[in-house]
Amino acid sequence: MSKLRTIIREELVGLNFRLLLARLLLAPFPYDVGSRLRIRVLRFLGFRGISPNVVMRGLPRITGFGKIHKLLKVGQGSRINIGCFLNLAAEITIGDFVVIGYKVMIITGGHNIGPSEFRAGKLRPEPVKIGNGCWIGSRVTILPGVSIGDGVVVAANAVVTKDVPSNTLVAGIPAKVIRTLE
Which domains are present in the chain? Predict the structure, then answer.
């Protein structure tokens, strides 16, 4: 019986009733309908760090364990596009008036390198911060521990592996500063 309980606990550890209820309530709405309603539902279910005037086209895939509703902060006037993935192993902070493109991945959970038998070692959560006024292009991946300054443009398909200074354009894999912006 103890083994069965352990298996059940392991299988259900990622089940988040707030997100499950949000998905059920918002399922009838296509991506182009109800973007502000998504925010109201999420805020009602405890995601109070999301400003009321955020536009969310489609519900992002949100993962994490525990009280993840306290780990997502999205500033006023920001827009999150279709197909995004938000990993809330640690806090994600998105500033004011940020535009996040299609299928952007923001990941806060990395792993230490383990022994040769199992290289993905212990989880190492690190927060991600995106400054005000940024534009994150389609299919960008932002890795754990990254801080992106204000007014940054991240070109499509870039992989951001380290901090980005304010008012710059970055591109590539890994993302590098292409030029300074005014």
Answer: 15-180 (2.160.10.10)
Give strand pairing partners of 80: 56, 100
171-180 tens-digit pLDDT: 999 999 999 9
The pLDDT tens digits for 98-122 are 999 999 999 999 999 989 998 988 8
d(CA 18, CA 23): 9
- Residues 162, 176: contact at Cβ < 8 Å? no
pLDDT of the residue at 12: 65
Determine the Cα–Cα distance for residues 148 and 92; give it in Å rounded to an integer.
12
Catalytic residue among 36, 67, 70, 111: 111
Single-letter residue type at 168: T
How far is Cα 176 from Cα 131, in angstroms, rounded to an integer?
17
Residue 111 annotated in active site = yes
What's the predicted TM-score (pTM) here? 0.89
